[in-house]
Amino acid sequence: MKFAIERSVLVKSLAHMQNIVERRPTVSIMGNVKLVGLADSDGEWLEITATNSEVELTEKIPAKVIDPGSLTVSSFKFHEIARKINDGVQIECNQDKSKSTLQVKAGRARFQLSTLPVDDFYSMPVVKAPNKVSLAAADIKYIINTTLFAAAVDGARHSLNGIYLYSAQRSGKNKLIAAGTDGLRLACTQQPLSGDVKEIAGVIIPRKIVGELGKLLEESGATNVDVEISQTQIKFIMPNLVVTSRLIDGTYPDYEKVIPTGNDKTAVMQTAELISVIERVSVFAEKSSRIRLSFSKDKLNVSASSSDEGSAEEDLDVSYAGGSLDIAYNFKYLLDILNQTKDGRVKATFLGPQDPAIFTNPDDERARYILMPLGG
Questions:
Q1: Where are the domains of the chain?
Q2: pLDDT value at residue 128
């Protein structure tokens, strides 16, 4: 195989691969990326694939392919070489099969990378996907941005370490619904589904791949994403980019049971103002993470105290209907929720100081956030 490629194009694609490939693999080839030189009616491409047996990422980037072929090389070393070459320089690569190497030339610099056989490279199994749906990239980014923060991070309950995705009828319309929770807070959102889409049974997408997908969507500029879902895999297909992931094998909790229905106290607040107040007051909540919200008629008092450091409180005007209410929260969890609506307002409904509250954006109620108060 022989090809030439612009340094900036190669570096960007190899950077995507670094978060997929194992940095300290027990088997050498699991630290490699597969390179395939393609020349077809659509043009000339370098196809790069990375995998860790749970996730697979394949990206096609433009290149001048002199001699099509395939090989695998160290993902980390190839990325380091490309990254340290001056921008604007064209990188020339030539496979030497007799020495099992890839000769890399850039300007006056020359490198030699060891290769391993493509036949030994792990590829995720091809699985028939009964459910296929095309979604706007903006809708997928919205789902990610509004649910991922609430999912557990390497929690003991394996099923909570991801985003739960399924379809259901809501108000007579077919909706794609997503949820994330770590047991203390919950984020759930829904998007309309159009077209002839079969029912999507609940699947759990690993947290890591959801985060990586969000980054790739931002960089790719894709406007639409084709999603293929089976019982064991999910695949996101964008122009020149395909992400395949195993699903988490487990049962997601019936989260809708914890969404309160009888909250009778409502507050509407300017989110940016409330965030600023919490950030100031929480100086005295760094050890306990506890802040207290005290509501009265159209007023909110935010306070925090530390027995050995001091205390802080601040008042702000809000729209509040209901009796007096004192309720304590983990301020970090509360800020996570508020940052979802930081450019507008937030509506919160409460029942009592020991009951979960619901937070929404009153101007866009596709997403709901449920937060448990702190006891005591």
A1: 2-120, 131-257, 259-371
A2: 86
